[in-house]
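Q: I'm writing a short methods note and want an example of a predicted protein-small molecule complex. Could you take the sequence and the SMILES for flavin-adenine dinucleotide and return the bound structure as tokens? Please keep the output block clean; save any remarks for afterwards.
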Amino acid sequence: MAVYPESHIYDVLIVGAGPSGSSAAYWLAEAGYDVAVLERKHFPREKTCGDGLTPRAVRQLEDMGVGDALTEAHKYYGLRTCAYGRELELRWPEHPSFPPYGYVITRHDLDMLVAERAVKAGAHLFQETEAIEPIIDTLQPSERISSSRSDIPMQPAQESLPRLLARTSASAMQPAQESLPRLLGIRAKDVKSGQLADFKARYIILAEGTASRISRAIGAKRDKRLPLGMALRGYYRSPRHDDPFIESHLDVRDENGDTLPGYAWIFPLGDGRVNVGVGLITTSGRWKRVNTSNMMDVFISNAPSSWGLRPENSCGPATGGRLPMGLSTVSKCGPNVLLTGDAAGSINPFNGEGISYGYETGRIAAACIGNALCGGGSDALYDYDYRLQAAYGDYYKIGRTFVKMISQPEVMHRCVQLGMHSKPLMEWLLSIMANLLRPDSNAPAELAYKLLAAVARSTPDPEDFTMSLS
Ligand SMILES: Cc1cc2nc3c(=O)[nH]c(=O)nc-3n(C[C@H](O)[C@H](O)[C@H](O)COP(=O)(O)OP(=O)(O)OC[C@H]3O[C@@H](n4cnc5c(N)ncnc54)[C@H](O)[C@@H]3O)c2cc1C
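A: Understood, no commentary inside the block.
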């Protein structure tokens, strides 16, 4: 039987110990706050994922002091992109803030490392403890005040002065999005015994991933106009398990040979296996009905034979999941509650990457709650939306336009064909799509991005997706 400290009031309670929950827990615990994390599984646990860490994710892990533990994982140096019989090897760009390498590591191992890091910093992790319902404060009590400001270092997008000014003026002029209710805590259940317990806290972070049980219960919604991806992955034993490049195939097709708006990947794990998967954008009409299992079968049967992706090398059936992109959750803040990672819809629409954005949004949420606990109150929490906009607003808006473009097969086909004939063009694209542009550079990729950002700022969002909110 689990022992739950029911009378205790934590500074911060976090639901979910994936990338975003453990990052928030680490930064808050490291700053000295009293933090509890509820996780329904027991580590190590499986999580369906491509297992690919880009330089952005590595930077966050190094900042949390997990860098040394990663040296056991498979290190890689860039992306081999393949389509229409051509292949290009693109190295990660040199960047002042991000390393020129990434890792492939199973979430089974990675999520445990980061959760353990948060515990080492002082967070209390309650495993096999499932959050089942929010305890909503119907009386709306006044804020508790304490003293100085938070010292959790803000990052990740190195806010420039113009961005900061834009954020400040946006913050002053725009009303906050529809607010979530104030919470007193979370009712949870011991998964094994069924024992119930009420966890109470001054501030709460919902880092539940796409499950989003508590987020939905308090009224958070996904904006259905914004991109949603579906992806499927499986493991294979492969002679190329230690390839120094991850590989993506941009000419994925359905069983009828028609081009699909997505890509397939082969990510080498260095332990005898590769992670193989397919992903596509399913937001708009016809792509909603695409069967990702068929898409995977078509890809596997056409994949380069050197990878050895044959049935006898399969390590088990493929599993899949949803990818909520482009900050697609509306209402990410309440007076004492914030949503992070997939619960906030924070996946990058350009490439489906979500781990680094989980770490980053967890860290931004931690900084806002740190400020709230130091006297900033609810205003510090509403600053979260503005900080997310400052870090990702323009970039994700361009990403949404990109998604709209590639959802048209002819456009996708022409762009990929054009790109595959120019390595410099694909190198720029890689910097843009992996969000690794240099803030201090006027190289072609950065100039192209600045132009796109200026256009994005002055135009409305793409609107061809369905219009209703779920
Ligand atoms: C097939 C696939 C491939 C992908 N490949 C990549 C990739 O290669 N690289 C990349 O960067 N991103 C990838 N992603 C995206 C990435 O997996 C997510 O963006 C990332 O896991 C989000 O982290 P998170 O912390 O928000 O949520 P999660 O990782 O989902 O963590 C949520 C945690 O909360 C727990 N939880 C949920 N509900 C409750 C509850 N009620 N009570 C207690 N605990 C609860 C869960 O058990 C889980 O541990 C992929 C996604 C899919 C589906």
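A: Remarks, as requested: The chain is about 35% helix and 20% strand. The two ends are 38 Å apart (CA to CA).
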